Amino acid sequence: MTKVATLTEAVASIPNGSHVALSGFATARCSMAFAHEVIRQKLKNLTVSQCVGAMDADMLVGAGAVERIVYGGGSRGRSGQHQCICRAIETGTLQREEFSSLSMTFRYLAGSLGLPFIPIRSLNGSDILKELQAAPDPLVGTLKDPFTGEDWLVLKPLVPDVAIAQVQVADEEGNAWILGPRWDNEEQVKASKRTIVIAEKLVSTETIRRDPDRTLIPGFRVSHVVHQPFAAHPCSVYQVYDYDREHIKLYAEASRTPEGFQQYLAKYVYGVQDHWGYLELVGGMKRLNDLLADPILGY
């Protein structure tokens, strides 16, 4: 059964106040086209979770779509901090639950296994743990190991309403490949109630079946499949295209101030009808062709 939908239709299926898990990492495999469409549709009061805060989350926070962020820190690497997230935390307009990257993955893992909690050692002795223990809503706890009597730190699971998986390849049923680094994406998808797949390339189910070991996301977990080339621009997708250094630098400069960020949205998000219009605005195929990945290196 085909689950192919437009990006507009997929985003419209997400109610205000939903918990959305994003698959991006800094400036890699970010769901930028998704973020643009969420902003255009004016979704509000979202909870966004992400192992390492990425550019898609920063844009959603800056646009006022996010009420709460659950993440393991993050930045854009060489292009600096996520200014919209930092500014919202500093002004008190964004609720945050900050973990380590590993503990975020453990929380998704607990959700994927249907566990009420999951034990972990790595947060012990950290300032992150002190802050979590002081939070009004319990996110961490302790229990005694029935076999050794040792006290263990335990984490509350994450169960998002919908995971957004930016992938290289998918079929019409939602079976999808993630090539290269997977991070916590498999645990995210399994923990979430459903998944929206955004694919660079749409192929036949027969093609998917030829290499089943690559299928990280099975179709039964997927509600919508969106075929949108260059959906992560200006971020990268391994083996498809590299990140657009110039445009990320432009975004970094614009997002330093609320006024600059709003001007960016006015031009690149509200100023176009859809992602195809955005791609034309940033230079069209002449520019995008320069970003195509080296077939050997993958970037």
Gross morphology is globular
What class do helices, strands and sheet pairing give? Answer: alpha/beta
According to CATH, the homologous superfamily of the largest domain is Glutaconate Coenzyme A-transferase
CATH topology name of the largest domain, in short, is Glutaconate Coenzyme A-transferase
Count of individual helical segments = 12
Average of pLDDT: 96
Classify the beta-strand content into a percent band.
15-25%
- For the record, what CATH class of the largest domain applies? Alpha Beta
Short description:
The protein has helices at 7-12, 32-40, 55-62, 83-91, 101-113, 127-133, 185-191, 205-209, 245-254, 258-268, 275-281, 284-289, and strands at 19-22, 46-50, 66-71, 95-98, 118-120, 140-144, 151-155, 162-170, 176-177, 195-202, 215-217, 222-227. With 299 residues, the chain is an alpha/beta fold.
Give the SSE layout.
Blueprint: H1 7-12, E1 19-22, H2 32-40, E2 46-50, H3 55-62, E3 66-71, H4 83-91, E4 95-98, H5 101-113, E5 118-120, H6 127-133, E6 140-144, E7 151-155, E8 162-170, E9 176-177, H7 185-191, E10 195-202, H8 205-209, E11 215-217, E12 222-227, H9 245-254, H10 258-268, H11 275-281, H12 284-289
Helix pairs in contact: 2-3, 3-4, 5-7
Q: What does the model show?
A:
33% of the residues lie in helices and 20% in strands. It has two domains: 7-98 and 159-203 and 214-289, 3-Layer(aba) Sandwich (Glutaconate Coenzyme A-transferase); 120-156, no CATH class. The protein has helices at residues 7-12, 32-40, 55-62, 83-91, 101-113, 127-133, 185-191, 205-209, 245-254, 258-268, 275-281, 284-289, and strands at residues 19-22, 46-50, 66-71, 95-98, 118-120, 140-144, 151-155, 162-170, 176-177, 195-202, 215-217, 222-227. It is globular. A hairpin with a 5-residue loop joins β8 (162-170) and β9 (176-177). It contains twelve helices and twelve strands. α2 (32-40) runs parallel beside α3, α3 packs across α4 (83-91) and α5 packs parallel to α7. The strands form two sheets. Strands 1, 2, 3, 4, 8, 9, 10, 11 and 12 form a nine-stranded mixed sheet that branches. The protein has a three-stranded antiparallel sheet with strand order 5-7-6. The protein is an alpha/beta fold.
